[in-house]
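User: Hello, can you help with two protein structures?

Assistant: Certainly.
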Amino acid sequence: MLGKKLVPLAALVALMSSVSLTQAAQQVTIYGDNAYPPYSYKEGGEERGIYTAILKEAFAKMGDYEVTIEMVPWKRALSSIEKGDGFALYPPYHRPSLRPWITPYSEPILDETTVVYCREAVIAERAPKSFPDDYKGLVFVNNTGYASGGDAFMALVEAGEIKMQEAKSTQLNLKKMLLGRGDCFINDRLNILSEMKKLEAAGEVKADSEKLAEAATLTVEKGYLGFSGPGAANFPFMGDFLAKFNAIIKEMHASGRIDAIIAEQTGG
């Protein structure tokens, strides 16, 4: 009698285990900047970049989640996070006063060196030493939605003492400077150098183009995975996802894996 009852019980346990093992992972979409090479961009229909390679490897270790990376314009990604429609995006800098709706932030993923690039003629004329005061009266180009330069710089922009013109990508802004339609550009050093190489390879840098050079090093910025504060209620698994992601990123830093990925991506 006992044996007859154990058979269906065993079958039930096996069925429950099977259901548990085959339960679908939580679907998650992460937005990435589609125009920030070599860190985050889309090329040939594929998601590419240093951050992208790091995140893909990290996400592959998060068995409870099936993560899709969607590359979109940065301004659109920011809008989705602010509205609470999006879950998370990469790679914002830590700007809690400017973007209070990005919260929480993950563990830092990468260090980026923010520099000021200017036309050589501007550097020769101004010999700038103090940023941002020595740059008053100049025209800065800027990637749409980016917030670099710091509070003092933005105060001069708001006061009209520095003019700012925005374009959708680093390449477009560098082209404007090569044509003399912008004076300076604040961005990550590696991003600027990689895009200049592409312009040179494409024959976009002419003999009569303006010459560009680094005028100043501003800061070392850290890039993060930033989450939607307004969207927290829409994504009740956010805390669990963040905890697991942070643990993996810490391990990748400690093991040297992130440094290895940077070297692989940059040929270093």
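That covers the first. Now for the second protein you mentioned:
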Amino acid sequence: ILIITGPNMGGKSTYLRQTALICILAQMGSYVPAEEAEIGLVDRVFTRIGAMDFLSLGQSTFMVEMLETAGILNSATEKSLILLDEVGRGTSTFDGLSLAWAVVEYLHGNNHIKAKTLFATHYHELTELAMTMDRIKNYHVSVKEWKDDIIFLRKIVPGPSDQSYGIHVAKLAGIPRTVLERAREILFNLEKKELDSEGIPKISYRQNDDTDDSQLFLFGGDEKYRLLKKLKDEIDRCDVSAMTPVEALNMIDRLKKEIKEG
């Protein structure tokens, strides 16, 4: 079982689809896009890829997803090929993660299945399964960060991905800058998983609201984030080409003092 993580648009779904096509091509005696390949026979190829609903049957997107997943779990054998793409994304985060985790455990532990499985997901918690289950391996779609952008390398490499780069992809899609900045604030607060002294979730905070800073920045990590953001904003506003060398040195000296005092 391969747990495949990585950014949106990185190629996870394409990798799953090409695996299915290559298996079918090989089994029918056709050429495959490889210099050399050793591919075992499969009795069936099961897929849970994409998202759609069936209004005429009264089935929501999530219901269709669960029906297809149920069909796979009840029908697959040890000689099947199973391709699962983001199982659990159609419901709440905790419900979806719980279902995805349980599905992987079932595929790993059920002696009647033990099928070769590719499981693409944005639930990075699933990568921890490889620590306790010997048939589970982590792979990810590699990317390269360049300044505030990402470059898709279109390669599958061993190991888990450290993030999904959703905000980066949103930037590529043309989402307004104010929305992206707000999303970064919310992401930071979510990762902190903290409440303020009044029990208000920090996810709701904004940089320019009336919230008391002493409540917003309770811990050293928060204070550091505020200082770094302030320095970044100030540097972004500077027109380096219009500054003299002395002015640039004075600015660097002032920023260094602010960091020491901060």
